[in-house]
Amino acid sequence: MPLTRQTLPKTIPDVAALDDLLCRPTQALIDDLKTIDGDIMILGVAGKMGPTLAGLAKAAAPERRVIGVARFSDPSVKDWLHARGIETINCDLMDEKAIHALPKAPNIVFMAGRKFGAEGDLSLTWAMNAHVPALVAQAFPASRIVAFSTGCIYPFVPVDGKGSSEDMAPNPPGEYAQSCVGRERLFEYFSRKFGTPGRLFRLNYAIDMRYGVLHDIATKVLTGTPIDVSLGHVNFIWQGDASSQALRCLAHCTTPTSPINVSGREILAVRDLAARFGTRFGRAPVLVGKEEPTAWLTDTSKAVELFGLPVVDTEQLIAWTADWVARAMPSLGKPTKYEVRDGRY
Question: Which residues pair with 185 in a beta bridge?
Fold first, then answer.
């Protein structure tokens, strides 16, 4: 049964149920994938979002080959993918010959990149975020390429506005975000050179129960850890909705490639979110700092026009997260670092 707002569960009991939910397609995703032909290959499939995006693609188009490509330093990811009918290929995307040996899939979702630890080796960050995209773009000139990017490529904008639109010129702080601008520019360059259709998927804070802005805030409220509200406003989106929109972008590519902002439609105050978790947990959040008048925020009007509103809304995400954190369910242990203002990760 396709996923709808009416079929969402009240709670998510465990990781297996979470994975199943993240891999349930909407009818709109099923219909969009029917408009394009060919296999789907996901480069960098072994990250936080990759496995469930691959599982969602296979569930939405079970007759297609879905191929996940990564180094697979954690072999259990391969087992998870194989159990869902997804083929895997071990590949180091820094190896140009290995990239050219991959199947020429008509549909590619590019998810490879480096964020956490970026400041520790900036040359590697630039190589992963700019050099690898150039290799991939040249290896697959005839494919549709949806390339994951980030809303961090924008400058900070006033929190009382609508957020950055796709027309705003990138001007971010920090080399991580600058390298992400490099990623976009190289995909754009080769898209123009070869006529490659694509989309630059500017995602702001996908979340599931194991990580994300809400997980970070809820955990700090529950443990009494101070919450810095200086970067006091955020957008975020359920990982299932973000994955669905990424796959649907394959049916909405442009030539040359063009950006699309993906996040929740609402601009939410960290202070308010902390208070809501405090009410649920019966304890007052510990807030420090003072809200700055600007933050990294995006205007998702174009995505809403194309895809409609996300299936999972803020109220549901808060309820799920509070329940998950209160039960001490698994965490990936990877803070979002949404509160970072200087771009240093």
Answer: none
Phi, psi of 89 (to 5 degrees): -135, 125
CA distance 57 to 41: 10
Going from the C-alpha of 190 to that of each of 38, 71, 134, 142, the distances in angstroms are 22, 25, 8, 11
CA angle (23 as vertex; 180, 336 as ends), nearest 5: 40
Burial (0-12, 13-18, 19+ Cβ within 10 Å), 117 = exposed
Measured in whole angstroms, the distance separating CA 25 from the mean position of its chain's CA atoms is 16
Count of CB atoms situated within 10 Å of the CB of 90: 12
Cis bond upstream, residue 9 (ω within 30) = no
- 218 within 8 A of 274, measured Cβ to Cβ: no
Q: Give this prediction's pTM.
A: 0.95
Check if the beta carbon of residue 153 is closer than 8 Å to that of residue 181. Answer: yes
Give 230-255 pLDDT, tens digit per residue: 989 999 999 999 999 999 999 999 99
Helices (H), 195-258: 213-223, 239-248
